[in-house]
Queue: 4 jobs
Job 1
Amino acid sequence: MTVEMTYGEAALVALRQEMARDARVWALGEDLGPEGGLAGQYRGLQEEFGPDRIVDTPISESMIMAAGVGAAVAGTRPVVELRFADFAMCAADEIVNQAAKIRYMFNGQARVPLVARNAMGLRGGIAAQHSQSLEAWWVHIPGLVVIAPATPADNHALLKAAIRCDDPVIYLEHKGLWGVKGPVDPDAAPAEIGKAEVVREGGDLTIVTWSAMRGVCLQAADTLAARGIAAEVIDLRTLWPWDRDAVIASVEKTGRLLVAHEAVRAGGFGGEVVAEIAECCWGSLRAPVRRLGAPRVPVPYSVPLEDAIRVTPAHVAEAAVGMMEGAGSR
Amino acid sequence: MTSSSNQAARVLGMLRTMHTIRAFEEAAAQAWRDGHVRGSVHQYVGQEAIAVGISANLRPTDYVSSNHRGHGHAIAKGADPVAMMKELFGRTGGTCGGKGGSMHVADFSVGMLGANGVVADGATIAVGAGHAIKVMGEDRVAVPYFGDGAINRGPLMEAFNWAKVYRLPVLFVCENNAYAATTRTADVTAGEGFIARAKSFGIEGEAVDGNDVLAVDAAAEHLIARLRRGNGPAYLHATTYRHHGHYAHDKGAYRDPAEVARWRESDPIARCAAWLVSQGVGQSDIDAAESEAQALIARAVSESNAAPWPAVATIYAEVQDLDMEVVGAPR
């Protein structure tokens, strides 16, 4: 039985379900109670579960994260709200040196079952310190699981999975998606972490993407279809572990791989995906692999400047056409 | 009479643990010089009374967290010195299977949440464990040990504030050995000092002679009892000194030899033994505490030398649960 709800509401439903199901689940962060979170994703939960399980905290990112780490090794399952991906940098030590390392360096004596929610991406007009997409930083750290849901249904099923995961999860909701509506089955089981979704099938080229770029790539696929090009669009959903098998299966069919993400292209996770495929699927490739991402500049404020760093459906379509027709194809 | 002889027996036990820590540290440094232990070995020699006096008032279910100088904290909380030595040797049977080494000895089965290589991070994690105690409604306390160097890290100030705001059962224990690595902490610390910082957050704070195990024991007894009554966090400032340098390869040349000599005369083990003599405890019992500790550590070293190296395949164990296909192993 599916219900239409927003991406933000879907996360609220998931957290409420997990808190009702497991008394060890609690949430902490700034402005969760009265404000209900930046997008209402905690609305009403403090009234329902009390201030000891929906904890309003001081602006102390290091301690917010460390409280999550310490409480996770001591038997609870905290959901740590860091508000903006940019602010997760204030807690980077606790994430990288503690949460990601504890299970390994103590050889499994403790697990760190926490979810660090830090919304990524462009919302429009909030400039350099509130708009970044930093998923590649987290993917680079052994020990972390990295999830970036693109739809309301995924923000429900993947958040449930993240809360039940016994390892630390960096959970990257996209600020531009909070109000996007879609069908959600509130009774859906937790999604499988590490499983991509083939959103649209096609035989001519594979477009791999995640988060808000899923919608951009689907628009591009419509444009391409009108020009007789059948694009297969894969939403990775989980960036670590990523569904390498799904991408390989698609590229073996299409022979062409384009990865599109909102993050800065240089050093972005797209580089890892194309490199892996170039290494293992060289014989299947009929054109050079391609990446699309933002130029290596901070996110600017003014409308035309910000627009200039966005990867648009036109960019994706243009790149795809180039791969079908351009030099280097075979 | 009975009560005082009970106390003497209890303190004799503390002496034995202090000897175990000291023997462990001297053996670890020797093994480092011999090339059996790699990296950094931060010795707790001279500071033993603090962890031992605190742990005498803790239960197995209570938590402690530690810093880079963590061997003493672990032994005092009940970790097995043999498994710890194997860890320093990087061998099978080590507390962390050879993945942690000296700076990450840990024994969660006795509530020892790990030595920690990032200054002040053990303290913030212990506050988090204290928050879990509150969320779960448990009867435990959490004790983070940190050095004077941590007092100038921002996260510790966040931790003080946090523990007080949420009234968590946390006893902050600062081991002030006067040096942050090789820098005199007093030279780089503004304001009225350590206790004033804790008190500025409304945390009860007191100072103790950290080389007097009886004084540490007494302070810990009433402060931890206060925690168990639900009165929120407390801060104990223990003044002490390390006999050796910051780590095994530091000769400590930045310290005045007269200062070092003065502190060595205030050795916590000698002071504890002298007190026991004054209470009529026989010299043979006091000597036995030392010889038993040395025998245990000698066995730890010989077992560590004999223990097999871990299998290389274990580098992939305990990273995370999911999909090892994409870990990036050479293939």
Job 2
Amino acid sequence: MTEPGHMAGDAGARDQRWQIRVRGLNKSFGAQHVLRDLDLDIERGKTNIIIGGSGQGKSVFMKHLMGLLAPDSGHIFVDGQDIVGLGDVAMGKLRRKFGMVFQYAALFDSMNVVENIAFPLLERYRLPRAEVLERVRVLLRKLDLAQVTGIEDKSPAELSGGMRKRVGLARALIDRPEILLYDEPTTGLDPIATKNVDEMIRRTADEFGVTSVVISHDMASTFRIGDRVSMLYEGGIIMSGTPRELLHAPHPVLREFVETSGAVHFDRPSAGVP
Amino acid sequence: MNPASSSGDHGAVAAAPAVPVAVRILDWVFGPLLGFLASVGGHIMLLGRALAWLFRPPFRARLFFDQMEFIGVGSLPIVMLVGLFAGMVSALQAVLALGMFQQERWVGFGVGVSLARELAPVFTALMITARAGSAMATEIGSMRITEQIDALTTFAVSPVQYLVTPRIVAAVIMLPIMTMVFNFVGLLGGYIIAIEMYHVDFGQAAALYRSWISSSDYVQGLIKATLFGLTMALTACYQGFNTRGGAKEVGLSTTRAVVTSSVLILILDYPMIQIFSVIWPFKK
């Protein structure tokens, strides 16, 4: 259920359990009020899923977490530091804590796979070429991309949807972020590729010990990989808790969302539910 | 669900008559003007940011050279082809017109001055707008809609510094160089027509060209080319950068970039001629 008692005042302190704490976030685009007094806590080292239908403001919210969009009002505390209103330099440093996997990977068309993955390292540090290449190759192996023939020199256009997602994840992981943001990672993938991407998210969370924030409308994925689920509806969080708590939440919108997704039935919970 | 629609249909119906007719008329009259002013302001701000980023590290020389190669070397064949024919056409017209008064020997000066002051900078800018300006708007627009520009930001890379600054600088450097190529090839075209085909006396034509044309004619053309390069790259980057939506919007951005910069090039040409005619009047 929604975490009670987190006022903006105490959210600013560094907390062992919560890595990101969002308080009273508002964002409008013209007459459209997308985020309305949004409060949310992201648990450190866990896979936090934010579910919601199309147009509920999931992507807009995600972009606030990395400072890609600025809120009209509200606070976002990352390890106790309010990132709202940070200058370019401070925001640039803070962004090193984050890695973001975009909905359609957002790989740079003008670069090959290795150049894409190495990009954050080459931009941020002066490292020997051999070391950069080695780190890229380690990630290619860990993400099961190394066995694809000629993968290093392929351009993004030559990759399948699932492979693009994995290259996007490799690029997000290369600078060893503490927090990984996934924007609808399974959209546009077939069921098998979806399952593979889910496993990849789960494995990445376990292996690299990162805090994952996944926005999704895929209930099956949510139950497969989520430690903690929050539902975004009309610009606010209407429920936060474990997947099991989600299943028993009384909110009618939530029940409808879960039931119509086909992933689980309230009378007959699926075996995948923790 | 769209939050705006969450209030239900009755809210929308009730809201419609609430906008007074006078406001709607004002919006109809001043809306386009405000849009135009916002666009001008947006261009100026983008230029300001691009110039500010030019002097801040990191400096990525490779991006500048890549763009210079694309705008310059990549446009060389089309600029040379158009330059050759522009020179040939103006020489042909000049020979035919001057022939009425047996004054064909002025053909070198006529072709040279029209190339230097007008044809070379304007045609080069239009050709490079069609080729490189459209490509810039399309590439940046595609990067915007596929979130590649957001991705740059997540790696703490300024998209303006990475994408816009190199294109503007490269265009400002390469347009004058390509204009000189156009001039050279144009004169060659003029030579082929006037001297080789119409047997105008080369010595006389060359002597008149040398004594009547001055370096200021070429300086004028090069100043124009610099300004046209800036206009072309800024417009293309602005349109690409402000693309929202999908493939259709990328196409529209490209169209707007090419049409706007072509029109601006032709419009800006006029006041510059006025200014240059005061600074460098024709010799009498």
Job 3
Amino acid sequence: MKPTRAISPYLFLAPALAVFGLAVLLPMVLTIGYSFTEWNGFGAMTFVGLDNYATAIGDPTFRDSFIHVVLYIVATLFLEVLVGLGLAGLVHMRPGRLWFRVAIFTPVMLPMVVVAVLWSFVYNPDFGLVNAGLAAVGLEELQRVWLGDTSTALLAVSLVSGWVFAGFYMMIFYAAFRQIPSEAVEAARLDGAGEWALFSRIKVPMIRSVVWVTVLLCVTGGFQGFDLFFVLTNGGPYGATEIPTTYLVKTVFRNGDVGYGSAMAVILTAIVLGVGLVYARIQARGRRVDPA
Amino acid sequence: MLVSAALGLLALFFFFPMIWMVLSSFKTNASIFSTPFAPPTSVDFARWSEAWEVGNIGQYAINSTITTLVSVTAILLLGAGAAFAFSRYRFRGRGAFMALFALGLLLPLQSYFIAQSTLFTQLDITDTRLALIIPYTAMGLPLAVYLLKVYLDALPEELFDAARIDGAGDWRVFRELALPLLRPGLATVAIFSALSAWNEFLLALLYIQDDALKTIPTGLLAFSTRYVTDYSLLFAALSIVTIPMIVIYVVFNRQIVEGITAGSVK
């Protein structure tokens, strides 16, 4: 369609571009700029070249924060994506169970802070559900201060993440399962395939591309996780759950080290974008080889 | 039979923390400690109204509502405008501008929030509603533009040509033809954007210190540090925030699931 006035397309675009440019694009460019400086946010800014990046590479807290977040991502791949896939398989066998989907999907709707405060009670050493449950079945010796113990804190946070997002992935997989032509499933059933064989050999392979997208979502989303960690442990106990996002928020907003925090933010961004691009590459290649 | 039993057990496992939360809000702090699993002796909403009034939950809910409504309206209007330009016109710079919004789909919040906060401090808009409305709108736009463009691309060009022959100018074609036809797409975008704005935490934590302007996530956090040991009051506050979301989900479950999954698997 030809615009009645040549300027019209730009007028339609301008408001969106102005807001997006001001709040996202400009700050992104500025953040890259800050990463080459030493600055406390209001005083004088000194150019320091790549010093902040060198510091980041040698910073054991920063390095450990990546180990923690990778462990967290691995845990959530099981607790969110794999559990979600299994749940979707179960629901697909008995469709129409709205109450079930409500029960499992509700946590996705809640603010993470609400989830985190609720689970801080579930993990409460005195009256929390976990310890009380263990006591009820006579397993007092397994009781722990779940979020205050360096050996369990990261797993405890990952479990909450699983509780929230398993339902999210379940809904994505369930929607994908419903797209599968029923002839494919019926044909396999006539050949004598059981429910497990149907699930593992027919249904899951047929939604393979969706599974890969969810893995990407889980990995890139995991690197950006913040809310749960901030409220439940804020990096503690003794740094056992420090992840890049909590560390860089502390660096910038508690220690006032804008330059160093920006460098860490740039590194984190590069990793997230890098994972996404590598992934898109692999996907594109897979599609060329295998048109299905 | 086995599958139904498994479904029932799983649902109970997932739902139990929320049931426990509501039941505990009717109990005294002492009985929460002594008998965590026991049901309350009576259903008394006294602590709920206390949390709503004394604990400021009412004010936080109003703030969240205003912030969410304004952001979502802005996302829909600005997003539809940009999507309309991209979908229906060929103009200089179109490809580059589209690439910018596509970049926005991938960028993590961490890539810009540090400078955004210094920028907002310099503009002196921290501790105002604008400090949340502007970034929530900006963060919602890339997805809105992308999804709405997909919807618009699917409409036949003849429709627009016909409107043009009838003498409709650019603005009228947008307002009287494109916007009404976009309604299903706008609904999807609205649901996704509303949930993100309602639940956003990090920026709200950084930009709003004034308790009278806090939204539910940061307000609830402030509330939980203020009444740190008054467990039944905290359980009441959590219940107040949670139950409306469950009701909304039960009523609009199809649209919500569509909105959230479309928004994520872009």
Job 4
Amino acid sequence: MSDTVARLDVAVVDHGAGNLVSIEHALAAAGAAPRRVDSPGEIEGAGLLLVPGVGAAAPAMHRLRRAGLDRAIVDWLDAGRPLLGICLGMQLLFEGSDEDGARTLGVIPGRVRRLVGAPTLPHIGWNQVNRRREHPIFEGIGPAADLYFVHSYAGAPVGDDAGAWTLAETDHGSRFVSAVARDHVVGLQFHPELSGQIGLRILGNVLRWAARWPASPGESATLPSKLPTPITAA
Amino acid sequence: MLRHRVIPCLDVADGRVVKGTRFVDLVDEGDPPELAARYADEGADELVFLDITASVESRPTLLDVVRRTAGRAFIPLTVGGGVRSSAEMREVLRAGADKVSLNTAAVREPELVQRCARRFGSQAVVVAIDARRRTPGDGKEPSPTWEVVIRGGREPTGLDVVDWAARAVALGAGELLVTSMDRDGTRSGYDTELLRAIVDRVGVPVIASGGAAGPGDFVAAIRDGGASAVLAASIFHRGLVSIGEVKAVMARAGISVRLPGGLAA
């Protein structure tokens, strides 16, 4: 692990959905210095913004909006800064979720839908992540590695950019998108923090990938944001 | 495709791993974090810690064991034994567990399952069911039935296991951990009829427990019982068989398991 990566400052968004202990342990083991953030001001200066989480989108979006973090995440992306979404954190990047009708961040065209034809739900356990193209976060990882999943819904990129977003697919009754990546955004439906040594390797790759995105202001982002107008809390 | 999971269970009492027969006659078998790390390296798909003393006094010791394990084994950790409230569940999750299993407290207060699922998500809530056969081979019943027992097998409840399983799922359980009390510790194989009866009724993953003697039993629990995962304790702790050996046998029998590798050469 190189020195530049070893101490990468990772801001882990605490939106109340899910346990952050495992991701913090895994980030530390992969060579990062994770810290929890629950307000926009704390994000500044981070080398990577990580949106974790499990469960439903609506309560998580409610917490993000209340803290102003929904806007902060999109501003971060507009500034060309690297973001990793894991599980619910990946799902929040889409436009909305069928699980509870939540309107989400709208970074990726498409919706989060229930897995179709699944023999068991939730989809829990190790399943093959079939890579559709190469990406730095999968460096040194086999083309169909077993990684750990816990979810019942998954995001489906649509439109002209669907192929550009889709990084890997997995089968559970039917095929779903298990990883997305474009420019400075990566989303993983599986949990690298629960996927043993291979998961740690992926997190280490993510840290090295994140370090490539410059922190200087004025660097233009290539990714347009489509954040809907924030809802004012009642 | 989704792999069938092999899960070593570490029965913990006073900070040590122990295992007895039918929940009695405890034998010391090692330090939990050390065993957990070893199993993760050997290819365990998940780990389960069960605090079999489940007393208020043993809780700080258990949380310490969970904390020491969470930084060493980067696979899912389920902790069970004596959790009675969502506040207690939160403590266990904050110590580093990924899931909590509820057993006696869920039977006594089914709404606890719902509260925990709403607060932490269904994926974090495993309902553990201890089952005892009602009609042990007398041939008079058209099909076997099982009764839910609680407090480590000491207290019968009158509840039908399959009905309780369905209710637990409706309340928000994300997985079921089903232990045959008749088979537990006896090394006579899983009760595959019990597993099949539950799997045919619910859609969530079912973890088989109680009675494993060897890899052939794991194959039967999955093929005949329909289990998504197999759990065992003493056969791993005593080194009778390794997780790698078990998985190799399962793979040869045509069962989809996660084998070592995955890092490109």
